[in-house]
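Appendix B. Extra example for self-study. Work through it before the problem class; the solution is given directly after the inputs so you can check yourself.
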Amino acid sequence: MTDDLIQTVMRDPSQRFLLDLEFVQTLANPQYLNFLAQRNYFKNPAFINYLKYLLYFKEENYIKYVRYPQALYFLDLLQREQFRQELANASYCRYIEDQQVHAWQRLQRRKNQLLTNPTGSSTSTANNNNNNETETSNTQNSTNAISTSTTANNR
Amino acid sequence: MTEIVENPNLSTRRKLDLLLQEMDTICREIISQLYNPSFTTSNLNAQTLIDMFIERQNYLTQQIQIVRQQQELERQLQIKRDEILKCDRALRCLQTYLLQAVQVLSSAVYQAREKLANIRRAKTFPSETIIRYAHQLASCYSTVAPDNWQQGDLRRPYPTNIDMRRGLLGRISEQILQRQQQQQFTTSNSMVTSATVVDSSAPQNISSSYTPVTTAVRPVKHDTTSFALDIFSSTNEDTNHSNFSSSDTDSYDDL
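Solution. Structure tokens for the complete assembly:
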């Protein structure tokens, strides 16, 4: 009974895919990244290989399963050694989390502005080109590459 | 005298001046003849002088008519000049608007060209796919905050501890932790009852079952068993047990 779940997962390809999908999406959580960094997961070469392996989620067939696209941006960043080292710093992770939430709220405000003022609008999309947080701006670029409806273009 | 009046190069004012000078001379001559008939400076008699005076007076009257016409023309000219000024001002305003419109249009055209280039470069997807994916992203608020979000709301743009614990990883780790606790319990019981040594390498046996099966090496699973409980310490055992029997999270219903 104890090994049932584990053996089921290891034997069934769809369950293993589900495991990969879950893990890659948890990478969007900066607290979890801090946790992994503090327990020296990022020093394990096997783990780094696994992160490189997870890049397959950026392909067309697999990206449609990802519900938290910011995770893919963090996955890209995690390929860099310097970022992995910085993640051990809790204040840095709190900063990332703050910026994430601010960008999340800013998009909501912009969406509401566009919806309430359909005639007068800038020609730029909600790419947030004028924000200063590099991590979230690239995230929004990647999400916009996938879907345009969230940017609320009233064309 | 006719050469004065019919000379086109002389202005009306000059003509009037010359006529008045001649009339003045003739008057003086007439008066001097009348006053002193024996002493005359010219050969003309009074009658001739008077005729000349009357002729010049007629010409003067004509010139005054001409002056009135010219004044009317000047008034018309001034009106036209004012209209021209007004039109000039309007034209300058229109020119400013035109320049502004040119700027706006040129930037709009440039951006439209950029967009078209992007569209040509882009990989096409059926719109239904895009809309379905956009709906998925919007429904879990992963990119845009919900409208009623306030400080203190637990929702986030990433999977939270509750979501992680409900998923497959969380369930695996809970199961392994339970197994470890059970083994510790049985170990302590057996130590109390029989005082035999228990093999404490059971955790390593568990980890050996997580051998990598793909070319990418997976992390050693026993290290992940405690992540859910370590960092998210406020564990609710009841909710975890109820979630064990639940199906996969609603995030993955497309699989």
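Self-check: The domain at 1-115 of chain A is CATH 1.10.10.1340 (Arc Repressor Mutant, subunit A). If your reasoning did not lead you there, revisit section 3.
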